[in-house]
Amino acid sequence: MTAPHQLSAVEARRLIVAGELSPVELVDACLARVEAVDPAVNAMVTRAGERARAEARVAAEAVAHARRAATGGAAGAGETGGGGELGLLHGLPVAIKDLQATEGIVTTLGAADLADHVPTADSGIVARVRAAGGIVVGKTNIPERSIGANTVNRLFGATGNPFDPDRTCGGSSGGSAVAVATDMVPLATGSDHGGSLRIPACYCGVVGHRATPGVVPFEERTMTQTFYSVQGPMARTVDDTALLLAAITDRSITPASGLGDPMAHPLDHTAFTRLDELDPTELRIGVSEDLGGVLVSAEVRRQFRRRVDRLVAAGVRCVEVPLDLSAAADVDWRVRSDIFATQYHREAETWDDGFNPHVRRSYEAALAASVADIAAARRTQMELYQHTRATLGGLDAIVCPGVSVAPFDWRQLNPVEVDGTPVENYMAWLSLTAAITVVGHPVTALPAGLDDDGLPVGVQVVGHAHGDHRLLGVARALEAVFAAEVSTARPRPDEAVLAREHPALRTDGPLVQLD
User: Fold this and answer.
1) What is the predicted pLDDT for the residue at 257?
2) Which segments in the chain show pLDDT lower than 50?
3) Where are the alpha helices (DSSP H) in 44-111?
4) What value does the CA radius of gyration of the chain take, rounded to a whole number of Å?
């Protein structure tokens, strides 16, 4: 029998509603799993066990009320009744990225100066998780201020890859990806700037979805209109990811502050609980191994080609596409300038010498950028968006690799070279994900088995702008193909790997800067 903490979110919720699984039992199982494996990976840096157990007891009572009402004829299937309608995440444990404010639970942003910061209100995404019945069990590790694709900071140290804790889990939503991959929780929140959902998802063998900007409300944004800084879901399967997406896109829930997101647009959030049933053999998928020439290692190309061959063998119609986003890396670096200047100009003078070098480097570049450079980049950004839109014409999606290199030693903030080519700055090796941020199309990071070293391989499935619902249906169809390759729904970390303590639960002094 499957242990409670290993159940999918969709199955766990079905059992909870049916009265066959208590939210208390599920939360207890997840908290026990955290205690058992987190010392090996250092993902759940703040825990809220006492509060989570109390909320689980309330959730169990709500189910009992609903079922009593249902058997009395007042409601059907135990979904509604004396306890009110059960939310989409009713009784499900959820881990929250430590970037996102949690009322009554420490929120550090991975920074020592916020080590004791306890918000008085939830951020928008957390408010929606709670309103849907989700139970927050803890906060997950991030780089300082959530900038960087390697989850390490001076407050909590590094989060290790669950398949090899000496390697990076990616970032910046690394703690969330690891918590999901190791069965600590079925669901976790993340965010994505240049790949912060997708990189750790690919490195840890889980699913992450970067929605079209405006699909998930982001009340805390500092710029009115931008493709950057979106909030999103992580889970072990596409169905579970879509369930969390349904909850965090609910337009009826707003945080206590009452702030809104000017990019959020009307949609039916419940549609994400009803994905299209698609036949893989009826899909037409575009294929690009380097998005027109961005930095990708030979080994990643080889692993990607093996995945494309698997799709073709399963009857998926795959076609090479002339998608050229090679200019996106330069656009990304320049567009980030006004974003970083806007976000950090009020606090830059407070940074100490050991502050996250990625944030400092980007901010300094922002101050040196000219308006003409930024304007030219934004013009090119629009052209790249239109080019991507045209390339997707007649296709269900485009598939490309997830990350340019395999997981590397966490002691490096980023690779210094890729197959002998020097990495110019900390974003240069992230062009596979950052390029898609530049064009703003939705993308699902999908696990696709293991490489020759036993490390996860992930692909990005890029969809039509505002076509998130269809894209998730396509991703689920491809998920089934890749699952057949590895003979399981997902690769599970070796329990022996998770039996030892992580070598760096805390990192003192400045982090290594490689750009």
Assistant:
1) 52
2) 74-78, 80-84, 487-491, 509-515
3) 49-71
4) 21
**Rounded Cα–Cα distance for residues 400 and 436 (Å):** 10
Nearest to residue 295, comparing CAs of 266, 328, 272? 328
Q: What angle do CA 24, 28, 29 make, to 5 degrees?
A: 120
Q: Check: CB of residue 41 under 8 Å from CB of residue 178.
A: yes
Count of alpha carbons within 13 Å of 31, Cβ hemisphere only? 20
Q: State the pLDDT at residue 486.
A: 52
The type of residue at 210 is R
Q: Where are the alpha helices (DSSP H) in 167-233?
A: 174-181, 198-204
Are 136 and 126 in contact by the 8 Å Cβ rule? The answer is yes
How far is CA 117 from each of CA 66, 111, 247, 473, rounded to the nearest angstrom? 37, 10, 26, 40
Predicted local confidence at residue 507, as pLDDT: 53
Looking at residue 98, its amino acid is D
Give me the residue label for tokens 């703690």: 175
User: Which burial class, exposed, middle or buried, applies to 354 when counting CB atoms under 10 A from its CB (0-12, 13-18, 19+)?
Assistant: middle
| pLDDT at 163 (0 to 100) | 93
Three-state secondary structure call for residue 439 = helix
Q: Which helix (H) or strand (E) holds 453?
A: none
Q: How far is CA 236 from CA 48, 227, 269, 276, 418, in A?
A: 22, 26, 20, 19, 29
Q: How many angstroms separate the CA atoms of 413 and 355, rounded?
A: 13
- Residue-wise DSSP of 297-366: -HHHHHHHHHHHHHHHHTT-EEEE-----TTHHHHHHHHHHHHHHHHHTTTGGG--TTS-HHHHHHHHHH
Cα–Cα distance, 434 to 330 (Å, whole number): 10
